[in-house]
Design a protein that fits this description.
The chain has 363 residues and is an alpha+beta fold. The chain is 54% helix and 13% strand.
């Protein structure tokens, strides 16, 4: 007599094989759908900028979960289980279904926001905005689950309101940073990717705005952490917000100060300097229009009779704020070399000392 001979003959078919088969079939279908979705996303058939492409990439492995949920629900219904067990299984399946749907919605909305911010000029979306959107979506999903279980959320909301006031008083500075971050994002005076200078002199590129602070990446490859409320209250120079004044953000101007000897031919100096400037800009910023008459063409402006030189500014333009450092570096090297070839002297400071009658330098 076998160990399981006491069981009915159709027990294994009704209680084990059929439920497992139902679950396996649905899970397999979900796996195949998820695999097909990943292949479509990796093949580049749908552009990342298109809405269909966003949906395909947001689904990810969720069809596998959905197939498993359908399989579990099917297995529960074809299995003769108690009403309590069926209720527990239904609650579990509904909770997981809401969670996966919220995950899909969160991925889709966040990707759409990222695409919108990219098209509006920001290079990346901020952690603060994406975290707030994610929290709202999952909070709505939790409320939906509680409502489905006939759990009254009114006392919960009341408790959260009272608790929220206490938390707001205890975390006053944190709340100030959160709302200051939202103010920065909504006004769009500072965006991800903008190069800014703080009133204290520190400058760099905004890389992220979180719920508490902003990250500024300096040209020396350091990270400056600035609380959002301090950033919102600071006097800031934004080098990438030229469109508010009608100036293209792809036109960043800067000046290099040069001095030449008094016996130099200033017309020749101007001509040689402009030739060097155009050559450097053509090599390191080819997208810039340096033709005569263009608003971005280099220019020379003499301005001072110095102690030992005639000083002037070389006004240069570039399409990127950070590109100015490389252009300035290459321009100074090329200009010195060309001046030496053309016998144009960059004088050293000279001082003439007059000694009084009967006085001489000590030996």
């Amino acid at each position: 007599m076998g160990a399981f001979d006491f069981l009915p003959r159709n027990y294994w078919l009704d209680k084990v094989l059929l439920p497992l088969g139902a679950f396996a079939i649905c899970a397999l279908i979900g796996y195949l759908v998820a695999k097909r979705m990943r292949a479509a996303a990796d093949s580049g058939r749908f552009s990342e900028e298109s809405f269909v492409g966003v949906l395909v990439r947001s689904i990810g492995n969720l069809p596998l979960f959905w197939g498993g949920l359908v399989g579990l629900d099917w297995a529960v219904h074809i299995t003769d289980v108690s009403d309590f067990a069926e209720y527990i299984a239904s609650c579990f399946l509904f909770t997981v279904a809401v969670w996966t749907a919220a995950t899909f919605l969160q991925r889709t909305i966040c990707k759409v926001l990222e695409r919108h911010m990219d098209s509006s000029g920001s290079q990346h979306s901020t952690s603060l905005l994406l975290n707030l959107v994610s929290a709202m979506i999952y909070l709505l999903g939790g409320i939906l689950v509680l409502d489905a279980y006939d759990v009254s959320i009114t006392p919960l909301l009341t408790a959260l309101g009272v608790g929220g006031m206490a938390v707001a008083l205890g975390l006053k500075e944190t709340m100030e940073n959160i709302f200051a971050g939202l103010h920065i994002l909504l006004t769009k005076q500072i965006r991800i990717g903008d190069h800014i200078r703080l009133e204290g002199g520190a400058e760099g590129q905004i890389t992220d705005i979180t719920w508490r602070f902003a990250k500024i990446h300096t040209v020396t490859n350091n990270i400056i952490i600035v609380p959002n409320n301090k950033l919102a209250a600071s006097i800031i120079t934004n080098y990438d917000m030229g469109e508010t004044t009608g100036v293209s953000v792809e036109d960043v101007a800067f000046a290099v100060t040069v001095g030449v000897a008094y016996d130099s031919d200033l017309d020749k100096v101007e001509r040689i300097t402009l030739e060097v400037a155009r050559d450097v800009l053509a090599r390191f910023d080819p997208a810039l229009n340096t033709a005569d008459g263009a608003s971005t063409a280099p220019s020379v402006r003499f301005h001072t009779f110095g102690d030992s030189s005639i000083d002037f500014n070389v006004n240069l333009h570039t399409t990127s704020f950070r590109n100015q450092y490389l252009i300035r570096h290459e321009f100074i090297k090329a200009l010195k070399k060309r001046y030496e070839e053309e016998n144009i002297q960059i004088p050293f400071p000279v001082r003439t000392l007059q000694m009084g009658p009967g006085k001489s330098f000590p030996q």
